[in-house]
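Researcher: Here's a chain I'd like modeled. Treat it as a single chain, no partners, no ligands.
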Amino acid sequence: MSTDDFKKSDKTPLVIVADNVRSFHNVGSLFRTADCFRAAHIYLCGLTPTPGSADMQKTALGATESMDWTHVEHTVDCIEQLQNEGYTVVALEQAEGSIDLRDYVPKGPTALVFGHEVIGVAQEVVDACDAVIEIAQFGTKHSLNVSVSAGIAMFEMHKKLTAQ
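Model: Modeled as a single isolated chain. Structure tokens:
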């Protein structure tokens, strides 16, 4: 599919919110994966870098051209805007009361929030979200790279949102 055809195509009712994701490589990967699942939009919040660097382009493989994106200074403002537009906003984070990604059933347009590589999704952002989901982990490590988590979560959400 060409970039022009992609831009005209129907999108999955899924948007991506990057909450202070600092790595150009991780952000490039978010773009590439969002393109793969035809996400509707990417919001780059706080200190998350915006397209333009060679490092991001190398990882995104052109997805910064196909994906629509917006920079928003404060993630909570972005969440409130999305909620007002009818999105259910879901943080991907290990937190008390979180729902296993495998068990979460989206109810309409969904925004997935991914966080900073070290501190995760900021607590004020988690508090503003409608739900918190997490990826079950069974080994000795209890964290995944944000781009890996995003790939798993986008795959699962795409599967569920397009089955509705």
